[in-house]
Amino acid sequence: MATGFGLFFRLAYILGLTTILSFVWSWLNVRRLKVTVDRRSQRVRVGDEVEERLTIRNRSKVPKQLLEVEDLSDIPGYSNGRAVTLTAGGFRSWLSLAPARKRGIYTLGPVRVSNTDAFGLFRRERLFGGTDTLIVYPQTHDLPGYNVPSSNISGESSSRRRSHDLTPHAASVREYAFGDSISRIHWASSARMGRMMSKEFDLGLSSDVWLLVDLHRDVQAGELEDSTDEYAVSIAASLARKYIEAQLPAGLIAYGDQRYALPADTGGGQFDRIMEFLAMSKAEGSTPLEEVLPEEEQLWGYRSSLVVITSSHRAGWVSGLEELARRRVKVSVVLLDASSFGSMFDPLALVPELYAAGISPYVVRKGDAIPLALGRPYAMPATLPEAGS
Asked: What is the count of structural domains for the chain?
């Protein structure tokens, strides 16, 4: 206007018209849309597929160009979105399948539909649908080779070792030996065999088993399903199932983002509660294992079995377990090799101290098959690095 030059006037008209058209374009592109979401996954385990079907329909007579459709879920490593173009009255539908890669409680939805005009001047978006909650439980494994611990109480162990004491669990019969009491005689077998037969007993189930999961943030390594904390809760869940199927009262202690504690109990309901707690737990604990043990030691008596699952390289917790062992608590350790997950620390340096304390640990490395790793205790090599590194 200052110069009176006609080209500038025409450019001003073009820019003004382009701005108006871009605004109208972006506004129309997100109008008269219908989005439906069919979420078929509500409760899954790590490694299972999260399944979701998205359908977007154009209810107007104007085509929709390059719509970005995305489910705003907060599941780690999960993405369900794409760019679509819809004809007048047309629709697009697709099924999304993605593995759940970390335990937790997550939110699915809402769905965001966004669009940018051809010149990138305006961006509009709309949200469709509500939200749903998805619970991702830790993965569980069958552990056929893992021996259920016993506290060596008469009539209270799962091992098949023969006992000279009378217990409620008769394992087999044998020929009568001098000194056997009348209460040991198995009369039905004696009548069938034509000679005196005596009962042999095994030890039964221990009084209770506690799982102690170390979720201190400073001893964790790795990411998503290939992390020490994910391995730890998966092992805890697998052991809990093994114990409860053996009719053992199982309890849980985990110091993560908060203290998670479940008194020892039996039954399917107890297993469900343990799985819920493990799903909720986060590896953000501020209390190291060597402080957890004295905090919780009143829970474990001489009839208890304690399984510690940790990736800690600190030596202090070994002496705590040694003290519990002196009090006749049956102690087992599952040691996660954090160095195989990328940590600069090596927990295997504690293996000699554990053996010196009378504890034969199980060792699990990244990529190990957990049933095989828990099939037998770790065989200590001739030389190992010294503890305290």
From this structure: 3
Q: Dihedrals φ, ψ of 253, to 5°?
A: -130, 130
The CA distance from 155 to 244, in Å, is: 17
Which tops the pLDDT comparison, 86 or 384? 86
Q: Which residue has 């699990």 as its token pair?
A: 364
Is 54 a domain residue? Answer: yes
Q: Residue 14 falls within a domain, yes or no? A: yes
- Higher-confidence residue of 80 and 204: namely 80
Q: Are 196 and 223 members of one domain?
A: no
Q: What is the pLDDT of residues 19-76, one digit of tens each?
A: 888 788 778 788 889 998 888 888 999 989 988 889 999 998 888 888 889 888 888 8
b/e per residue 154-186 (b: at least 16 CB within 10 A): eebbbbeeebeeebebeeebeeeeeeeeeebeb
User: What mean pLDDT do residues 208-222 have?
Assistant: 94
The pTM (predicted TM-score) of the whole model is: 0.77
Task: Determine the 3-state secondary structure of 352 from DSSP.
Answer: helix
Mean pLDDT throughout 234-252?
92
- Do residue 128 and residue 232 come from a single domain? no
Q: Is there a single domain that holds both residue 104 and residue 179?
A: no
